[in-house]
């Protein structure tokens, strides 16, 4: 079972991120801290998140734009202050965007914007929170690797699989596919770079889910609740043998 003292979720004001915060906070033996970040905590789109924070004392909302390095550093400083010397067990790089496009209509501007959020964002966020992840790993009495000890989970997509090239006839979305392929490579690099620190690194596909992003591409089969329950169950089962892998919400291995 997943048993973390502290977790941070990016892009937590809606969709999968919001449901992750809700289910983590609602666990009977849940985390002491659930850091929920989003770009505009005071905006109308963050109302559901604010409702969760009012219901659960462990939920701490922080402003963080994953495409803004200064915003990331400010959030990392606040998390460090809240943790009062403890480490961060689990980083869920969930924030992501998509711009609908075809191979011929794709623009350099959309490509750069999506890449900045979906690839550079997780890279920069991880760099900022790495000292806290290392601290959690060093102070843990657990052997090996696990999400309960110290882990980086990059929310990816099967659309980024070069081997599978899933649903090409359904939608090209070049910016999204390329960004997720790059995120998968970042995950592999992180798994090698942080192996000595015993920080588990995985790329995770939540499935085609009934969110704003998922609905934009058609009729997704998965509810957000089903996806997130699967994700949390899977995270609780991951060990060092899963380091550097690409899995779906049920824990099944996916082709790069």
From TrEMBL:
Pfam families, alphabetized: adh_short
Name of the encoding gene: LOC107110638
Stated family: Belongs to the short-chain dehydrogenases/reductases (SDR) family.
Protein name per UniProt: C-factor-like isoform X1
Transmembrane segments: none
InterPro entries according to UniProt: Fungal_SecMetab_SDRs, NAD(P)-bd_dom_sf, SDR_fam
Species this chain originates from: Gekko japonicus
């Amino acid at each position: 079972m997943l048993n973390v003292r502290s977790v941070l979720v990016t892009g937590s004001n809606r969709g999968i991120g919001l449901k992750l915060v809700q289910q983590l906070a609602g666990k009977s033996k849940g985390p002491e801290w659930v850091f929920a970040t989003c770009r505009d905590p005071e905006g109308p789109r963050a109302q559901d998140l604010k409702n969760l924070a009012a219901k659960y004392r462990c939920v701490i909302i922080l402003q963080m734009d994953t495409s803004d390095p200064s915003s990331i550093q400010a959030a990392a400083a606040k998390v460090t202050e809240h943790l009062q010397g403890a480490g961060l067990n689990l980083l869920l790089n969930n924030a992501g965007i998509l711009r609908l496009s075809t191979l011929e209509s794709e623009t350099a501007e959309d490509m750069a914007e999506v890449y900045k959020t979906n690839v550079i964002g997780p890279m920069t966020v991880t760099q900022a929170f790495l000292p806290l992840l290392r601290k959690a790993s060093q102070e843990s009495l657990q052997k090996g690797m696990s999400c309960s000890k110290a882990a980086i989970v990059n929310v990816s997509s099967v659309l980024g699989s070069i081997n599978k090239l899933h649903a090409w006839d359904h939608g090209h979305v070049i910016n999204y596919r390329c960004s997720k392929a790059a995120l998968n490579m970042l995950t592999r690099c992180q798994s090698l770079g942080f192996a000595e620190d015993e920080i588990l690194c995985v790329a995770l596909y939540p499935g085609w889910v009934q969110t704003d992003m998922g609905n934009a591409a058609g009729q997704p089969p998965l509810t957000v609740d089903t996806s997130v329950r699967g994700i949390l169950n899977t995270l609780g089962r991951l060990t060092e043998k899963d380091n550097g892998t690409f899995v779906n919400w049920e824990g099944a291995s996916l082709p790069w």
